[in-house]
Amino acid sequence: MAIKVKRVYDEAARDDGARVLVDRVWPRGLAKGSLRIDLWAKDLAPSTALRKWFDHDRTKWEAFKDRYFRELDEAGGAGEPLAALLSQARDGDVTLVFGAKDTQCNNAVALKQYLEQRLEA
Questions:
Q1: pTM exceeding the 0.90 threshold for the entire prediction
Q2: 3 state SS of 37
Q3: Coil, strand, or helix at residue 71?
Q4: Which residues of 95-118 are buried (b: 16+ CB within 10 A; e: fewer)?
Q5: In which order are the strands placed within the sheet that holds 39-40?
Q6: Distance, CA of 19 to CA of 36 (rounded, Å)
Q7: Over the stretch 26-79, which tens digit does the pLDDT of each residue have?
Q8: Which residues lie closer than 8 Å to 17 by C-beta, 6 or more apart?
């Protein structure tokens, strides 16, 4: 079992496991029927205000993660969507799918870290 991250524009693979879109807005240029995802977890995405504040500025990465994790915690760990995602991750592979161009500093990478911390606890 593993949690992976992958750009939404990359090909789906057999070993992706459950594919979960973790963006609040639908990815640009893709029709809803064209994307292979099992779940669109909008509620696990950063708030619009936080997303706009971060604006993919790498100098804000650590502060973004702190604020994002705080948002998830304050939402009761984002409730049922988070519990379902943690359960899936315990049972098999999960791929967090995202639309950002930056593959190293984005909400899916941060969410992966958050989920792994919860799984270890």
A1: yes
A2: coil
A3: helix
A4: bbbbbbeeeebbbbbbbbebbeee
A5: 3-7, 94-98, 18-21, 39-40
A6: 7
A7: 998 888 888 899 999 998 999 999 999 999 999 999 999 999 999 998 876 556
A8: 2, 4, 88, 92, 93, 94, 95
